[in-house]
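Support case: user asked for a sample of complex input and structure output to validate their parser. Sending the pair below.
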Amino acid sequence: MASGQDKIVGAFLLTFSTVVFVYYTLWAIVMPFVDETYFLHAYFPPREYAIRIPCVLLVFGLTVILTFLSMVMIKSKKKVEKKAA
Amino acid sequence: MTRATEAATIFGITATIYFALLFQWLPVTLPKTVQEFTLPVLPWWVLVSFGAYSLGNIGYHVLTFRDCPEAFDELQIQISQAQADLRSKGMTI
């Protein structure tokens, strides 16, 4: 079997992704149809955030990835120019 | 039909139905909550679910990765056999 630490990381990833999926599905799909006075609504932020948070995360993630990509491309171009000089 | 064409077709059909419902091009009236909130949130829900599925799949396979001790032992024997064979033919290992 994988080493103990690997197993803990794997189990953590699995439970984290399950929790995220269940919470987000409840929040975005189920809660709009639940009566406003039901106690569960206290456990979820206002509904707009169900759209804002993934949107912000996507923009932020894309920025990080594309910035990294552009820096690598610039560096490799500088190396080619240095070699040609 | 290639896999790519098939995937593009399914995506195109789903996207058309989704936008038709979202911009109300069809003479179909959905319940108010569905039209106002559920439809706009669906693409984000698909994205979050895909991310969660990917992460969970990786976690599951990391968790259940088998070390294969039998293959390890077999490989060790084969390595020592190969070393003995090469030494007998004059190589220094």
